[in-house]
Amino acid sequence: MDLSKLRRINDYEWEIPKQGEMNVPGRIFGMKRVVEEMDEKVYEQCSNVACLPGIVKASLVMPDGHWGYGFPIGGVAAFDPDEGGVVSVGGVGFDINCGVRTMISNLTERDVRPKIKELVDELFRTVPAGLGSRGEIVLTRAQVNEVLTEGARWVVEQGYGTEDDLEYTEENGRVEGADPSAVSETAIKRERGQVGTLGSGNHYLEVQVVDEIYDERAANAFGLFEGQVVITFHCGSRALGHQIGTDYLKVLAEASRKYGIKIREKELVCAPINSPEGQKYFAAVCCGINYAFANRQVIAHLARKAFSKIFPGEDLKTLYDIGHNTCKIEEHEVDGKKKRLYVHRKGSTRAFGPGRKELPLKYRSVGQPVIIGGSMGSCSYILVGTEESMVKAFGSTCHGAGRRMSRTQAKKKFWGEQVIRRLAQKGIYVRAHSMPGVAEEAPEAYKDVNEVIESVHHAILSTKVARLRPIGNIKG
Questions:
Q1: What pLDDT digit, counting tens, does each position of 280-321 carry?
Q2: Does residue 441 belong to any structural domain of this protein?
Q3: What Cα–Cα distance (Å) separates residue 381 from each residue in 298, 389, 393?
């Protein structure tokens, strides 16, 4: 990105001045090198989002920002329903509530390393993954509706998990406002049998070691210690969520014309929050959010099952489960007043600071856990939300390393088998359902996660608690 077009606020914050039809300025977070590496499309998309009706404060981009559909990935925007604010497909994405869960064990690398192949192989057999994968739960039509409205709570009630899992899941695994009648029959049909499946693409399940602790107080609250083995997995609402996005591109395109909203990019189609179309789309998004929570809850149950088979008597506890493709109704302070806003996070993670009532009691004094994935060959991080983020970014931070290379480019440059061999030499055992899928996710296809994390840490959007090093990985 050409930095001459930006106003430098400090070493980690940059502004796109309000100009033309922009209602608010743009704000990009990242150290100089990270922002320079962003493609020019990020500048354009951030500016386009700033033109949408009812947007509050600024159009935001996190340090892992790169080109997306409508919104940049890493984009955050909050809209005021009382000021004509809108909801947009591009602000949520197609994999609704794609997110991450980390589960902690009492074991150390010394305990697990001798059995890492057994463990990864068992997880590979137990957790369905890959394109079009199907799980062990096949829902009736009535049960689908229950999952769409009740989320993770419904699957816990069926015996797939514990009340503690719900306590340590964002929104307790269920959002209000879901209406299954807003979801098409095509989306329902595409759902069939996908609860409890990892999927493909950048979705993964990883066995990790806590490599370094940066914040002892937060680490103690989260139950983390050096050398500890944890399991983290990343997935979302599968085909159902994607179909919701596809369906509402058409609905909101018509709504944009109906309400005279100028659209600068196809996926930025939107509708006023208070319109029938806006409310219907939001109800469908809430269904997708609940479905993704249910999906990750079943995977957590299956991961526990596999883990205890290799390590009898040992259990995995949920540290936290959080999404990064969402639209949520949240209360934030704007110009000294509390406002009820619709916060879109597209490839961006909620990072609420200490004291928020939405946080589990155990974490409330330190802030919300934030789980940031790197790549198969690098590290991941646990961060904690901050009060500064509440002011600067509606309590938001990055969601991962961010792609440096498209999937098509990566497949042309790398061979899956070679990637797996290289990772094995680094002590990382990989199982995959697709070699082209491994090539797409080659570590070199991603930005340097350490630079992204340093950017959010110094911008105080979220601060470092622990670094996680992979020792086993499953790709869809």
A1: 999 999 999 999 999 999 999 999 999 999 999 999 999 999
A2: no
A3: 23, 18, 20
In a domain, 357, yes or no: yes
CATH of the domain at 307: 3.90.1860.10
Residue 430 resides in a domain? no
Q: pLDDT tens digits for 190-221?
A: 887 788 888 877 888 999 999 999 999 999 99
399 is known as an active-site residue: yes
* Alpha carbon distances (Å) from 189 to 95, 139, 144: 16, 11, 10
Cα 31 to chain centroid distance, Å, stands at: 22
Instruction: Report the alpha-carbon distance of residue 439 to residue 437 in Å, rounded.
Output: 5
Per-residue model confidence as pLDDT tens digits over 120-134: 999 999 998 756 666
What the block records as the tokens of 224 is 């983390």
Residue among 399, 433, 457, 458 flagged as catalytic: 399
Token pair belonging to 286: 């809430």
Q: Give the total number of structural domains in the chain.
A: 1
Domain assignment present for 370: yes
Q: Which domain holds residue 215?
A: 3-404+446-475
For the chain, the first-to-last Cα distance in angstroms comes to 33
**pTM recorded for the entire structure:** 0.95
